[in-house]
Amino acid sequence: MLVHPQFDPIAISIGPLSVHWYGLMYLVGFALFWFLGNWRAKKDAWRMMDAQKVEDLLFFGVLGVILGGRLGYCFFYQPEFYFSYPSQIIRIWDGGMSAHGGIIGVILAMFYFAKTRAMRFLDVADFVVPLVPLGLFFGRIGNFINGELWGRVCSADFPLAMIFPQAADGLPRHPSQLYEAGLEGLLLFAVLWIYSTKPRARGTVAALFCLGYGICRFAVEFFREPDSFLGLQALGLSQGQWLSLPMIVLGGCVWGWAARKH
Hints:
Blueprint: E1 2-3, E2 10-14, E3 17-20, H1 21-43, H2 51-77, H3 79-84, H4 99-116, H5 121-128, H6 133-146, E4 162-163, E5 172-173, H7 176-195, H8 204-220, H9 239-261
Parallel strand pairs: 1-4
Antiparallel strand pairs: 2-3, 4-5
Helix pairs in contact: 1-2, 1-6, 2-4, 6-7, 7-8, 8-9
């Protein structure tokens, strides 16, 4: 049986300044977005992207991820608390980010970018979404380093069974952070990157992201421990699964629309 390594969540300390691994993982994800986005801009000139637009997209995307992720957590997971104590919303350093909220934030950022550059939203979305899963991958690695968002209890004989001391119960659990990193991170990146290397009907790459992320997240939630303050919701599904279902429906609808149109 494995035991979580109990990494120090602080990567670097310089006097009173502390840099956390979780924050560094975000920075790595943003850096890869910039690097791969510029590479795609050079290869996909027909999409009217260039280095300046990639930088602008990154700037709006960072805002979308941070604001959307934080607000999504506050209102999807603990609305009563944050409505009662709205000053706590800005305390992002205390933790609490939602991947679904971050995705919504990025969608709004892409809408703004497309509108202000007189571009088609779906062209922007098709360009952006293959760059997103690596950010999700490093975010989940950050969760694993912190020993948070651990999985459900599993058999001690399971090869990946892991003890998370933060869980305080000593029971073997699934390292669900790594499952998510592998599925919604590496696997989804590979699928989207390969699929988008050839010209596709407008909107199908974005639709594939919605379908892929929704399905991967829905599946992994069966192995992830539900938030203690929420537990399982209707039909025995977790909050993450209920938030993933609209993404699956949206992806299917956009895919069907694009197939009929093109």
